[in-house]
Amino acid sequence: xxxxxxxxxxxxxxxxxxxxxxxxxxxxxxxxxxxxxxxxxxxxxxxxxxxxxxxxxxxxxxxxxxxxxxxxxxxxxxxxxxxxxxxxxxxxxxxxxxxxxxxxxxxxxxxxxxxxxxxxxxxxxxxxxxxxxxxxxxxxxxxxxxxxxxxxxxxxxxxxxxxxxxxxxxxxxxxxxxxxxxxxxxxxxxxxxxxxxxxxxxxxxxxxxxxxxxxxxxxxxxxxxxxxxxxxxxxxxxxxxxxxxxxxxxxxxxxxxxxxxxxxxxxxxxxxxxxxxxxxxxxxxxxxxxxxxxxxxxxxxxxxxxxxxxxxxxxxxxxxxxxxxxxxxxxxxxxxxxxxxxxxxxxxxxxxxxxxxxxxxxxxxxxxxxxxxxxxxxxxxxxxxxxxxxxxxxxxxxxxxxxxxxxxxxxxx
Length: 413
Known about the structure:
By secondary structure, the protein is an alpha/beta fold. The chain folds into 2 domains: 6-171 and 310-388, Rossmann fold; 174-306 and 390-409, Rossmann fold (3-Layer(aba) Sandwich), CATH 3.40.50. The protein is 41% helix and 20% strand. The chain contains 14 helices and 15 strands. The strands form 3 sheets. A 7-stranded mixed beta sheet has the order 8-7-9-10-11-14-15, with helices on both faces. Strands 1-3-2-4-5-6 form a 6-stranded mixed beta sheet, with helices on both faces. A two-stranded antiparallel sheet has the order 12-13. It is globular and about 65 Å long. InterPro entries: BCAA_transport, Leu-bd, Peripla_BP_I. Keywords: Amino-acid transport, Signal, Transport.
């Protein structure tokens, strides 16, 4: 595997100091609601004011981009949209410029850990990103007490709780499993199969789904269980195992390219036509767009409803993202998480008024943040954010019957 190549995105300081994180949030909100040519202006300001010798705060981003593709690119666009606004709002800690160093570890946890250690030695005060569970966990363990903001790693909450410097913005694997189990319990299917990624996310999702479903329906039986190597697209053995089983329902714990490969490989075979299927986040715009006409109907899923929930801040975020996106698309779930992760990072640093990891971690633990979906905080025991998700089903190329779910309101079965 070739060595990761760093790509830097710098956020320039603006003309006015920010005496507190509250003022930074107010200015970010004002800039966002003005949403016009601001992203373009902010990029120009970043280039003009990115002079050598000015004080910077270094943030690392170790997101696998090339092998994930568009979902990771949309995450970066959301992140950079927030970074542009932070630059226009004046940076952090009295006009210090935030410098983001992005390194693509290619989905390799060892490469991610080595890159994280290098950035730690270079003075990184915080890490963000992480769309893969295993690489995100490797980064968090490699950087000691430096906070890590996982945008959409879908790590199990039990694992996050054991890593004190790790904070999770997107839902945990357990939350997704319980939401899908609640939907699956309402169907007549008794014999359920599992096809999932062979990583922390896939196995924790399957475990949570199974426990929650059996708690509601003790008669449930396991018909087949198959795990797919992460980012491999090697779904043929899993489809064959499902075809040879007597499953009536199927949990599909895949995401991004693996999920698209699974759906397209099954199309026309009839293997999944007779099954009740549950899959996380197929209702997110990135998956709806990737599958297009291949999107199955009637699958139980979670997703993202854009862009009326949350009122004006959400609409303003959507409009600003559309202007920043090369094709004028509405924001994806990854874009939302990228935007929130970057805003959270800057607000925590500004609130701590320090580059010491312990002070930034204290700020994160105490943080209440305004986001396009409303106020966000982290649960003190799990470091899980309370951003809502939606449960529903697929149909006619859309995410239908979407109902909001509070991830912190889901108790264990």
